[in-house]
Amino acid sequence: MADLDEIGPWSEIKLEIIGDYATEYSKIITQQEVPLHHVYIDAFAGPGRHISKTTGGMVLGSPANALLVQPPFREYHFIDIESSRVEDLQRLARDREEINVYQGDCNEILLSKVFPRVAWEDYRRGLCLLDPYGMHLDWKVIEAAGRMRSLEVFLNFPVADMNRNVLWKDPTRVSNDHAARMTRFWGDESWRNVAYTTTYHLFGWHEKTDNDTIAEAFRERLRQVAGFTHVPISPCF
Is the whole-model pTM more than 0.85? Predict the structure, then answer.
């Protein structure tokens, strides 16, 4: 059994928002004149349960909340790289045929096993939760989701990992490995132009831009490059 991680109030609010959205999404999809086969996808699923830092009580994670949605999704796809979390997810599934649990790198599993099951031309639609713990998501997955036209995506923009390891005031001190992770998540090297202004400090390096500017630039990439038709403005915490 996986050790349960503690989550703060913002994470609890996020889980509530996703659960409410999934419920309304499922209602709308099942009311269409043309029958649609709709699926729920959680790429960084976790064990399905957490501990509240506020109350100390048990909090259902996104996979468990998804299974409570009414009307239910036709399929569920839960992915995690940690074996102990996958074991918990398998117990949650209880041999239900509509629940698929995968262990491994979600970047490969989504592209090879899950996304092909949600093709637009097959009258399939999906709600996909991309909530990485950091910069563990490849741009190629995001772009594939956008071009499919059959997926709605909740994407957590991992600004904490970016600020901690990449978006430093002195970019020359950032390790090549962390910079490469940023490029893989962003999709190309254009993040460097977004993250720093053309203004130089006394010490010679460019001035770092703020989080909202970086998040807005990524939002534009979702629209202009990945092809998502609607990308709401969201505050960057």
Answer: yes
